[in-house]
Design a protein that fits this description.
The protein is an alpha+beta fold. The protein is built from three helices and four strands; from the N terminus they run βαββαβα. It has one domain (2-75): HPr-like (Histidine-containing Protein, Chain: A), CATH 3.30.1340.
């Protein structure tokens, strides 16, 4: 399991984020406060407060989880 801080500022960012996460078979969640949604669900993501950073939980292990984290680097909060 790996955790990242994610910022999704635009609709295009959300679309690209969902396209990337859907390439991987393992589960990923986005957490905002007490709400958690599937990171592969565009509707779920839009139900969160996107003005703040989100915690992403990658439930995969090993090389594939690292690859996903690298692909999502442009969305990580600095």
């Amino acid at each position: 399991m790996k955790e990242l801080k994610i910022l999704l500022g635009t609709i295009e960012d959300v679309k690209e984020f969902v396209n990337i996460t859907n390439k991987y078979e393992f589960d990923c969640d986005l957490v905002s406060g007490r709400y958690a949604v599937d990171a592969k669900s565009i509707m779920g993501i839009f139900s969160l407060d996107l003005s703040k950073s989100l915690n992403m939980v990658i439930r995969g292990e090993g090389k594939n989880a690292e690859e996903l984290a690298e692909e999502l680097e442009k969305f990580t909060a600095k």
